[in-house]
Write a structure and sequence with these properties.
By secondary structure, the chain is mostly helical. The chain is 68% helix and 0% strand.
Length: 135
């Protein structure tokens, strides 16, 4: 029995950087839907929702081309780093991966603009403009 994808996505929207809270949210949803929580535990291990999955797949394909692979512990560390660098934003995760691949880095690095993350700066500007227009 699988938990609906919409519920997993909602948990990542509500708690983008906290997997523990995502898991608790999903377990609560599973319980309210009448699912056995032991089934849910198996499902989480098999089909864990990761917001930056597409960017991660691009990076892993790039590393495969270079004949490099990640072991399970290294893969978990990579997932955490990508999530941390992107603040859980899947689009920015792709920017990070493209930047790192374009510079032939062996690891993931966020682009910098005079010490300020240019993507975050663009987001702040966009949010300010949106709030001004909303008033």
């Amino acid at each position: 029995m699988m938990l609906p994808k919409e519920i997993r996505q909602k948990s990542s929207e509500l708690f983008p950087n906290d997997f523990e809270k995502q898991k608790i949210f999903c377990m609560g949803a599973a319980f309210s839907l009448g699912k056995d929580l032991s089934d849910f535990e198996e499902e989480c291990q098999q089909d864990e929702f990761y917001p930056c999955h597409e960017a991660l797949e691009i990076w892993l394909a790039y590393k495969k081309e270079k004949r490099q692979a990640y072991k399970p512990r290294g893969l978990e560390a990579l997932k955490k780093k990508l999530l941390q660098l992107s603040n859980g934003n899947p689009e920015y995760a792709k920017v990070i991966v493209e930047y790192s691949m374009g510079n032939n880095y062996t690891g993931l690095f966020a682009p910098k603009n005079n010490g300020v993350n240019s993507y975050e700066q663009q987001q702040r500007t966009f949010n300010k403009i949106s709030s001004i227009l909303a008033d």
